Amino acid sequence: MSSHALLQQIEALEQGVAQRDLEIGALRLAIDKLTLELFHLRRMRYGRSSEKVDSAQSAVKAPGAALVPKGEAGQAVQSAPVVDLEDDRHKRQAAACRTAPRQLPGHLPRQEVTHLPSPQCTCPGCGTALRQIGQDASEVLEYQPGVFKVMRHVRPRFACAQCHTIVQASAPSRPIERGLAGAGVITQVLVGKFCDHLPLYRQSQIYARQGVVVERSTLADWVAGAARLLQPLANAVRRYVLSAGKIHTDDTPVPVLSPGRGTTRTARLWVYARDDRPGGDASPPAVWFEYSPDRKGEHPRGHLAGFAGTLQADAFAGYVAAEFM
Hints:
By secondary structure, the protein is α+β, with helices and mostly antiparallel strands. It has helices spanning about 5-45, 55-60, 70-80, 85-100, 185-195, 200-210, 215-240, 300-305; strands at about 155-160, 165-170, 245-260, 265-275, 285-290, 310. Among the domains are: about 10-85, no CATH class; about 180-240, no CATH class; about 245-320, no CATH class. Strand 1 and strand 2 (about 165-170) form a beta hairpin. It comes from Polaromonas hydrogenivorans.
């Protein structure tokens, strides 16, 4: 083979190597871009673990940039523009704050405070009487913590001058007999305990800061009294759930204080759900909860006494002996 042919073959091989390096550089840049996108999507779903994106994950090849051989691929990635997602998000938020008007909810009550200049009647420069030509108004969101009040029920007594009959209106009923708590206070205690997960001792401390001393034991009595009042509603939910042709059930462990031992023991909350909307059922869904101090099979069998239908549950042996299985 002549030297000219060898030179042509070497040149062709060099061009092939250069083309391969270009393809490898393009793949690396694509991988870097996909890595950054994956990182951004994970952070959007699971939250970020740091305030800034790592610079190695933020380096993205500029759109439309020329591809480079393998030896220069790393330098191209380092010299490419760095996209800081945090700064970009902050800039968008700042721009939105500048363009969008800040409006507070219209259903909130308004209290207007007028700030008059001093002096307000005469011009401070020449003493001439002033007249209003306009005004500037701005709104600020404020918060006033829950305020206690005392409802004083007065029942006047009336007497007949002729027959000496005494007439007086009946005393209004109370949520808890002979209790000092009204329906609003009891509702606040229940919402704080079961919706906001605020223990009773903390609620007692909060109320004490407002000058209302209510012991934790008293709050516990209020919760127990409210449970007795709501028992008919719980019974109605139970009847509705068990009237379905199919229900779902499961149990979950809950820690319960063990008096005298200074520790907790494991109790159970049994959940019975009625929801067949995926199967085309138009009946409203409902969930019924029942408590038991342990996980013995007698509890679900007692809960489901009289139920005739399909029970969807796990392989807990306590369901096996039930009549409906």
